[in-house]
Amino acid sequence: MSQATFGDDDLFGEAASEMREDVESSLEEGWDALPAADDVWETDADNVLGVLNGLNSALDVGDAEDHLRDAKKWFTMGQRADAFDDAEDLEEEITDLEDAITDIADASEQVSDLTSTIPTLRGTLEDAGADAADETDDEEGEDEAEDEE
After folding, report:
1. Does residue 18 register a pLDDT over 60?
2. What is the pLDDT of residue 143?
């Protein structure tokens, strides 16, 4: 084996190691960019709309999608180059992070829907309450008029 070939193998092994480290690093940064569980669970809002707005803000995945993209990019490159001896753990973690981001995005969409629905619902209920109070006042007025006759 020539010196150049031996050097190329060493370089390839080093590059493969660095690719794996890049994937692992990007995955770690992706997980770190997700919201903390307490940020999603705890609130100090005074009303439902405040809770929903706070929750919607907490459900921001931040740069996690960018880190996931980097991890997938380096993983795909390493896989195509057959640079990884054992890549199942990386593939599973990429899938797990992708699923977590999808779950958070779905929750955020649901919270956004509620955030826009709740004020309308409150207005409808206030109007219904006002209409019911007006009907009660009208009925009481009619009853008093009948009693006076």
Report:
1. yes
2. 59
Residue type, 57: S
For residues 13 and 44, give the distance between their C-alpha atoms in angstroms, rounded to a whole number: 52
φ, ψ dihedrals at 6, nearest 5°: -60, -40
Amino acid at 105: A
Count CB atoms within 10 A of the CB of residue 31: 15
Query: What's the CA gap between 133 and 148, in Å, rounded?
Result: 23
Mean pLDDT of 6-17: 76
Helix or strand (DSSP H, E) at 92: helix 88-148
Tokens of 25: 């690093």
pLDDT: which is higher, 43 or 10: 43
Q: Which helix (H) or strand (E) holds 18?
A: helix 3-33
Residue labelled with tokens 């080093």 = 14
What does pTM read for this prediction? Answer: 0.75
Cα–Cα dist 78/21, whole Å: 11
